[in-house]
Amino acid sequence: MPRQGMGNMWFDEFLSKYRAGISHEFLLYFNVRDLVDNERYIEQYIYDEFIKARKFSIVAFYDISTGLTFLEPAMEREFHLITSNRAVNVMNALPSRIFPFIDKALKSTKMCLFINHVEKIIPAVDTGSMSLEERVALIWTCEWSNSNKISAVGSTVFLLADNLADVSRELLSSAYCVEPILVGLPNEAQRREYIEYLLRDKSVKTEISIDEFAKLSSGLSKKSIKDIKLKAEAEDVPISFEFIKEKKHSVLRKEYGDVLEFIYPEIDFDDIGGMDLAKRYLIKNIVEPVKKGDLRRVPMGILLCGPSGTGKTLLVNALAKTSGFNCVKIDMSRILGQYVGESEKNFKKCLLGAQSQEPVIVFVDEIDTVFRRGERDDTGVNRNIFSEFLQFTSNTNNRGKVIFIAATNRPDLLDPALKRAGRFDKKIPILLPEAPERAEIFRVVIKKYGFETDVNDFMPLAEKTENYTGAEIDVVVRKAYELASERDGDKAVLTKDILEEAIMKCVPSTQQVEFMTMLAIRECDDRDLLPEKYRELLDRKD
Ligand code: ADP
Hints:
Layout: H1 9-19, E1 25-30, H2 42-51, E2 58-63, E3 67-70, H3 73-82, H4 95-108, E4 111-115, H5 118-121, H6 132-146, H7 148-153, E5 156-161, E6 179-183, H8 188-199, H9 210-216, H10 222-235, H11 241-256, E7 260-263, H12 276-292, E8 301-305, H13 312-323, E9 326-330, H14 332-336, H15 342-355, E10 360-364, H16 381-393, E11 402-408, H17 416-419, E12 426-429, H18 435-449, E13 452-453, H19 459-463, H20 470-488, E14 493-494, H21 496-505, H22 511-523, H23 532-540
Parallel strand pairs: 1-5, 1-6, 2-4, 4-5, 8-11, 8-12, 9-10, 10-11, 13-14
Antiparallel strand pairs: 2-3, 7-9
Helix pairs in contact: 4-6, 8-9, 8-10, 12-13, 15-16, 18-20, 20-21
The structure holds adenosine-5'-diphosphate (ADP).
Residues 272-275, 308-314, 407, 441, 444-445, 470-471, 474 line the site of adenosine-5'-diphosphate.
């Protein structure tokens, strides 16, 4: 079968590194148990596309549970010939017993070796606390990568792991030549091609188009997509938006735990009151350039600064919906709550998971609670996670495909490295709404809840709610509904009087808000993003 038009980035990367003689030992990681094209899994694919034409005399597989096996009996015979039949009784044995024989074969004949689940053989623990067995396996695999004899003979080794962070770091240290290759999840075009192939026999009904299915299945492997089809077939139900969403949730939850939340945005910019400057910026610099395909203009990251409850989360949702990007939220507090080591692993996996959703908006709320100034010198978890985050957010290959948006009400506490140019290109202040904006918020919030009202002009109410955040206006509206329901039951109508009564009963919290507003203004480096009344303050800031 010919290779598919879309190409497989990992395979091309492997082949070019192999051809350039960069290495003969490769660590393939992440989505390694998935279909590569419509029918072939990774070993089969590598066999067809790489091994077959290169005349390897032995193709063998090692797995800790099944031991050493061969593609064909003749290959096994040749292996025993090379090892003078001394390996016959240790084919199922642990690495320390069988690896010396594999070593001999790798150096004597052109052999291709797959080591599956390498993380079980050489796990990510300090070399000091490795078992003797693990240390021996590590030494052999490292030594193979540097061996001139192996490269002269033409042998090639593939190590396979689900999660790079589960494998000993030693393996990738610069002293050795093991080349890591990321096997990513299928992108939208690859998913579409696979879905077309899957659904061609018309054995299941679908309520959505192939394009919608492809878009909705972001973050899923082909195997999971196939499961969706099989499940629909078994349950005799059509594949619908809800069906995919439910299945996707359970797959992703299993994969990433509670750390990544997948958001299906349902609101757009019209459902947000006010924030005209921020909206305009996002439309001009993200929505429009993305539509035109001019990705150079799209910022790598954006920092939303301002008091809580001013609609920062809402804005991210609306941006996702309007731009057509997927949206995931990383809950950092859950990552940091995990065991040392675990949290790092999970964080890496989460970033890859988030990236696999591209085009995607990655939202980190309350970022100041995790990456605080001065805490970077801590040893351990925080520092490693921080550097991982910095690396990821400054990867310019992601421009236009992954947009980081972080929100904070304490930008002053953020680590300066995070704020340096090129990472969060833009800092947008999201401040308390002014009177016309508050009137707008009254209108959209009442509409959101579907409440009846006889008020047409909300300006008088807006005048009475100075210093209220959007979230506090939301509280006022719900309070008014409660009051109206108590009085009129099902026929509750929000009148001007009832809304005013609710305003009296719901007092805004002003203390922190003023301070947070001042911090957001100080952080801002673009006058155009500040409401008129604060511009002068920005000019005076020292
Ligand atoms: P933040 O992320 O800044 O803390 P949120 O976006 O979570 O604020 O806002 C909380 C709630 O307040 C929203 O779900 C919405 O009901 C209401 N809200 C806040 N600002 C606005 C706004 N500008 N327009 C409409 N509703 C708003």
